[in-house]
């Protein structure tokens, strides 16, 4: 029923055989509530995965487990060859390799845009301030807001803030990017600017895991779409077959709800 | 071209017509009075009542000031001069000015030392209060406490300079060591520090135990008390060495494991080395240096401190100590480590459940029993410890409120960028939490400053103690009341109001979230 799609996309983005993330038989509970059940997932380097599913199905929890924002109780997660355990050193190592964008941006409101972007490189990577600022400006240009560098997050629109959040993650030069519904707190006219940024990132070969309901985005950049329900991976496939020929009834129901109107 | 045009026109206005004033019924004082004071029957009545109250008050108070006597040597002379008129006897302020400000036993030749300390305090506080001043001024801020201690208490300058030198040296040495050695070595160093810490604790306990047996011995050399005390002494000494040294090693190891980047370790290390060094090195060093290069001021004992100066000393020292302690307690209370959390919760809840005045009594009476007489544990120091603990508990709760107000997303964003606990706390969490907490912290600070007058109850002669005691009990000024307390209130008001104005200014400065 589940089949792993490895066919390359029309845009010519390459996937290597190198494994970026390997999740084996992972389980998580909140108290007695079994949020994630027997998750098995292997992500190749350069792969772009879209995760969708009904609200409460555990999508956020899954990607938050990958950078240890949540602790899993059973099974293993290996990121970039580092096994995620309760050892703080491994956690810090993984976190500095994995960037994350949140639904509500979570920029630091007391720091300027530039300071938001240089903070982690300076303190975690120990990069000199000047160099960190150059890197930050490079990525701010990339997300097309270099002129806002000295403003505070509160002075920017939602779409701009989310692009800053992406730039902030990129400044750490992560090898993997996680997105948790990056556009769902945005007004419709701002969604496109954020998606454009993400598409650009995908075209450059970044390994990406996106929780999103933007099916257009999934069609355009994903190698694989994963459907989750009730804490399980129900179905995964390349976008075309996933959308045109869903296998499970739950997927069909979900797709009819989300694409129906 | 322009010229010819101008000539061809009959009249050109060179200056704009001045704006005509609005009709008298729409603006000006009359309109203001009508809209603000008499806009309805009810408001008019309120206005009239308010005016009546204000006028009666001014009429009552004005002659008191206007007829006030500034030059007299006793209340009797004042009454004579007033000759039945209502009037304040402000002469008491002039006569006892020095006492009100500096207390009655501080040597008058040394008043300049206090004034100078006060002026320097302003300079030292400036870079902390105003972020746009050069950061280099912070060096002076760090130096100031040592200088002020010497200025106010006198004695040899080398006492406080030796302390300062030891602090700097321990910091430097640790930094050097921490940079030179690798991770495993650091672990061993941390354990060594822990061991020193353990020995230190053991030594303190040993002193306490010997003191206990000494007290018991002085109560009665024979009998059960002395016997118990003696046994307790031996038990304590053995216990200290078998228990505290391993515990010290364990603490060192635990510190190392939880904070591997060494930031906290270096602070703790510097403190501990300092603690040990202080007890063995300070005496010989300062005496030695002072022998070669004596720089001395007349020494003034703590019991001779008094007046508003004492309130300022207690207020400044306690506020500046209780804010960092409060931060540590607030963070500790949020900690995942049950032991640390437990200690902080118990401390905060205990202190908050006890009136400050009882803590002051403890400082005054009880601590004196527990500490060896030779330890020379100064009364002001004891009071400072108590007031600091008291306000730190309150500040901790205020800051905890600030921490709780931060969205969870801020912690997550910091975590997801790979910042460790220290970095996230110092760079992301505390700056925001403290900003939210400013009004609450200022509230506690202002309260603390006013509470310093409670020391008058444990017979210290601060401003209030000075008024209640030596001034009102003197034959010359036996029944002056309004004038002295009014003056005291004015002094406190000026300081507290300035603090509150500063905090409002600071809040506006820090408002970057544009909500
Ligand atoms: N901290 C938590 N404690 C208890 N239950 C939680 C917690 N976070 C999420 N949950 C529950 O776990 C389930 C999955 O949540 P989540 O991963 O956020 O879902 P999704 O992102 O797919 O909407 C939900 O039912 C949610 O109520
Ligand atoms: Mg979610």
Strand and helix map with partners:
The complex is a heterodimer of chains A (261) and B (515).
Chain A: E1 19-30, E2 33-44, E3 48-52, H1 59-66, E4 74-79, E5 82-83, H2 88-97, E6 98-101, H3 113-123, H4 129-142, H5 158-170, E7 176-180, H6 188-203, E8 207-211, H7 215-221, E9 224-229, E10 232-237, H8 239-244, H9 249-259
Parallel strand pairs in A: 3-8, 3-9, 6-7, 7-8
Antiparallel strand pairs in A: 1-2, 1-4, 4-5, 9-10
Chain B: H1 2-8, H2 28-36, H3 41-66, H4 75-82, H5 91-95, H6 97-102, H7 111-129, H8 137-153, E1 155-156, H9 157-180, H10 183-219, H11 223-258, H12 263-292, E2 296-297, H13 307-333, H14 338-352, H15 356-370, H16 379-405, H17 408-416, H18 421-451, H19 463-471, H20 482-510
Antiparallel strand pairs in B: 1-2
Major sheet: arrangement of strands of chain A: 6-7-8-3-9-10
- Average the pLDDT over all residues of chain A and give the rounded result: 87
How many H/I helices of chain B?
20
pLDDT < 50 runs, ≥5 residues of chain A: 1-12
| CATH level-1 class of the largest domain in chain B | Mainly Alpha
Measured between the Cα atoms of the first and last residue of chain B, the distance is 55 Å
Number of helices of chain A: 9
Overall helicity of chain B:
over 70%
Overall, the morphology of chain A is globular
Approximately how much helix is present in the residues of chain A? 25-40%
- Residue runs with pLDDT of under 50 for 5 or more positions of chain B: 1-6
Mean pLDDT of chain B: 81
Structural class of chain B comes to: mainly alpha
Query: Widest sheet of chain B: strand order?
Result: 1-2
Which structural class do the helices and strands of chain A define? alpha/beta
Indicate the overall shape of chain B: globular
Rg from Cα of chain A: 18 Å
SS elements, strand count of chain A: 10
Give the CA-CA distance, first to last residue of chain A: 27 Å
CATH superfamily of the largest domain in chain B: MetI-like
Report on the biggest sheet of chain B: 2 strands, antiparallel
